[in-house]
Queue: 2 jobs
Job 1
Amino acid sequence: MTATAGPRLLLKRMREIMSERIAAQSRLDKIVTLIAANMVAEVCSVYLLRPGRQLELFATEGLNKTAVHKTRLKIGEGIIGDVGLNARPLNLPDAPSHPSFMYKPETGEDPYQSMLGVPILRGGRTLGVLAVQNRTHRLYGEEEVEALQTVAMVLAEMVVSGQLVDLAEVDEGLKRDRPWRAHGTAFCEGIAMGRAVLHEPRVKVEKLIADDIAEERAKLDRGVAELRAAIDAMLAAEDDVIAGETRDVLEAYRMFANDRGWLQRLRDAVNSGLTAEAAVERVQNDTRARMMRQTDSLIRERLHDFDDLANRLLRHLAGKADTAAHEALPADTILFARSMGPAELLDYDRTKIRGVILEEGSPTSHVSIVARALDIPLIGRIDGVLDQVEANDWVIVDGDTSDLHLRPTHDVREAYRHKLALRAQRQATFAAMRTRPAITKDGEVVRLLMNAGLIVDLPHMEETGAEGIGLFRTELQFMIAHEMPRLKNLIELYSSVLDGANGKPVVFRTLDLGGDKVLPYARPLNEENPALGWRAIRMTLDRPALLRYQIRALLAAAKGRDLDLMFPLVAEVAEFKLARDLVNRELDRVARIKQRPPRKVRVGTMLEVPSLGFQLPALLATADFISVGSNDLMQFFFAVDRGNPRLGSRYDLLSPPMLSFLKTVIDAAKARGVPVTLCGEMAGRPLEAMALIGLGFRSLSMAPASIGPVKQMVIGLNAGRLSAFMADLFGRSDHSLRDALRQFAHSENITI
Ligand code: PEP
Ligand code: MG
């Protein structure tokens, strides 16, 4: 055969056979005869994978016809099984001497010496094997291998379209219609049920065989050029559309989009008679097959990038290069992506997004921060999920257990429907309490505030009835941007936060960077112990320009209104004073330039490093208020990494030493009349919040979703009785007081 004209002619003839009105088996028989003739082979056979992972001879030219539908090989068995298992061609001049060779007498294949077997692939999965054999001892040429692979791809499409075989006879594992369950890592809790939407929609390649090769070649070149230009444009974008890991991914795309090997494979596939789209899919099939075999995570990652890139190229060729953000979305969308930047998530209509599933991601990834702000359950680190999901599949996201259910059975769906209904009932109860003040049975008023960090958090204030923002984490905005926000943008942001709060108090915390909070545009620090490192106030005092820049924006945003600001990770009073001096200097500047000042400025500090608890008199004489950060406090108090899951339950906040420490703080602050809030995660858990009230705390700031449950607890509590009950507990040597407190709640009928 002539290597270039051969496959094209063959593909054309295959298309003709497909349009004939004959039975499926006759079609397949005609096709193998055609391939054998075209490839000048004495034998051409098609094996397809059946349920049970067996490759069955479905049609042959040259072998005994009586073996059709009788000869079977397990995947991995014989040369055919080897090609199927490894999803790569075997080109053997002397097949019988190959270690995998397995003699099947019923086929009558004795006289054949050489064999070329190629996998029939779809979506990287093996559907079957296509093989040609010759009597002579020969090595098939590279172009012949390429041609047979192209034919195999077209065959794959014909098989799955049901035109060649009854689909019930082929392996069900090929179809993405069975339930699939996976366990990942939840980066934002919650449960959601809905329909799958692919953030980067797949393009279904409709036309495989080219009418005009030159035209397809030109189309491919245009598509590649467009793809490159689009990636360059995204990387050069000045706005916040990309950040952090998305940028790294794009950098990798740029490199691969210029990879000569990849481009050459695409061109070869077009030259063998495929349309530009089909060529991309053909090369993508090989990449996916290699990816599935790959155990080295770095190489797998690289192949993954090629796979993504091929998807992008397909979308360019089809003229659908955008993400799904601006398409018509189902009302209960569950988004699927490999990874996603925060701004990309924000691009969606938030009223329609119920959950997000990522192949990658981490708790500190910026998209997780945004998902938490939007209160959207997000599960990440589900390897291979994009190979499993189809657009519009039913999906259940269980962010409480980190489980994903794709195409769940009726029973699973019903169980979750029930769970969601119960949740909705609880939500309705909380919503009904929204405007009710949080007052204990014995008349103690507790202020319930919420934590926030982005503009998208603000609507939660109204929804939950929070009395203000007890902690506004300003670093989040810096983290989700891809460059340092400009002063003007910061002023706008802080003004909108104050506008959104509508007169309710907002406590802004200055930048708390370092540790696990990294800026995508800053140089990594490479510290041995980042949690104990150059972070938060330590960093900003060493870089006062940055802190002053932020204070300047806060003062400008708050003109005429109250401004509460505090510093993170202060470890000694002297440090607090230095930071406070910077505020004073900025206030002087405001006076100097005759800018309208805030009505009142209160400067406070986080108390999250234990050392500060041993300087309380001096601290309380200088700080206008204190906010206890129990997350970091716990980490430094017990010397326990807050992010290490192995130590997650090693020590308890509700233990005699921690509660005694907190009691010292609250007692001292009360004696001095200095307001204290607790704004760590502890405040949002009803049992812990109850204990805090027992200690004397009357102001708690928490994630918006916790306001309802905590308020419910407060309303059922008698604070005086709890304090009396707790008075005896501090001196105990128990590991934890959790059980004792739980029993108290139980005996008092308090909902926790
Ligand atoms: C804390 O440490 O408790 C706190 C509220 O701050 P962050 O979680 O932002 O470190
Ligand atoms: Mg902290």
Note: The chain has a mean pLDDT of 90.
Job 2
Amino acid sequence: MILHHVDGVSTALSSERSQGVFDPALGVVTKRVVLANSADVQTTVEAATRAFPGWRDMSWANRQQILFKFRELLNARKPELAAIITEEHGKVLSDALGEVTRGQEVVEFALGAPHLAKGEHSEQVSTGVDVFSLRQPLGPVAIISPFNFPAMVPMWFFPIALATGNTVVLKPSEKDPSAAIWIAELLSEAGLPNGVFNVLHGDKAAVDGLLEHPNIRAVSFVGSTPIARYVYEKATAAGKRVQSLGGAKNHMLVLPDADLDLAADAAINAGFGSAGERCMAISALVVVEPVGDALVSKIQERMSKLTTGDGRRSCDMGPLITHEHRDKVASYIDIAAADGAHVVVDGRNVQPDGDSNGFWLGPTLIDKVPTTSKAYLDEIFGPVLSGIRVPSYEAGVALVNASEFCNGTAIFTNDGGAARRFQREVEVGMIGINVPIPVPVATFSFGGDKASIFGDLKAHGADGIRFYTKTKAVTQRWLDPSHGGINLGFPQND
Ligand code: NAD
């Protein structure tokens, strides 16, 4: 049984419910995870609340030493974490290791937090008066994460939350909960005091409990758009600071002057890596004619060489997360075909290198998908690449900007002027220019636009520091005999 990690202890608390955790490459339940009830939420938030004053008051230097030790342990032992991710999520080992490395970048960024969280100081704003600002931690904060990045998404948030002096309750996805526990134990090994980082497993009951709890001061959520919207509305109504990142439908626009081999490689990598279960996956391939046929045939040729199978066997692509999700993704192939699209490669015919019970769906390419089809409009979140032909750059940008989701996008071109126009005109949060998965490095902030994010501050980078700190402005005057006296007027500067 996978237990909670609360106040430094592995415990079932009073949880009576549990849920099976699958190995998606085997198609069987290999573990179970406890699911929190409302009393468990209370116990966990109390632990984070008790730990807060001590952690807040610890010097920057001492907090940084613990995070530095955590970084060293993580760097040395990350293959262990990658193996856990592959076992429960299914993504291939090299991809799981890549996920951990990108998360580690945020730990390294957080080691610079003392510099980034510095306040400002203005001397002599009025005669004998100085003003300065401070940044202070918020208190206990909640992080609620999705199944598709069980290590990286929590790492977008908790290193910065901890570095700036907050305590954390992480509610990971119940589909792949073990990565969070491994991280919690490593943080303890690095010397993090008990109660500063807690992992509470669960489903809607745990999430609702955290959103309602008065001691939780801020919520960082990542998941699908309907739940992101729900979390944002519920938590802001409860007076909390919220950043809530939702779903995606990312377009790759290929102009006729692009290097089509580069574009074909990029479409494969961004469309089928992690079986398309990435919020930055490319799912809509928008090609400006007349190069559509040439690009589709280059992609088809590359797809014939891809291997799908158990992530522990050096395949290119692993299984989907659950049987239900696999069937839902596959159903979009029929929807697209019924709407008049051309199924170029049908992933349902894949011969996997893995157990026959695994949740397999091979890479799928559908061309000439009507933009009215649900196969184009919905977030599919699987290895299905939909080709759309457009007559011009303008038509391509109009399509991108009409999308409900605006997380990431990419343009492939050798025309710098067109790329510059694209970066200015497109209403999307993260843009790649000849880069298919433009996940910004940790020093910049991660987040989309429109229905891909609710809230003003994005993940990590400068926004991460702002999100996890509150500011105070101090106006200070040390007594000077020449500035005494009574004056009931509004303070003015002289
Ligand atoms: P999900 O929305 O089903 O679950 C996310 C979290 O919300 C989980 O911890 C889950 O337990 C909880 N949850 C689920 N249903 C809930 C409910 N009714 N009430 C309260 N909490 C609930 O998402 P998922 O399937 O785990 O992850 C895939 C989704 O996440 C995709 O839509 C993907 O695009 C999105 N995602 C977005 C980003 C981003 O940065 N924008 C990054 C990764 C994933």
Note: The chain is about 40% helix and 20% strand.
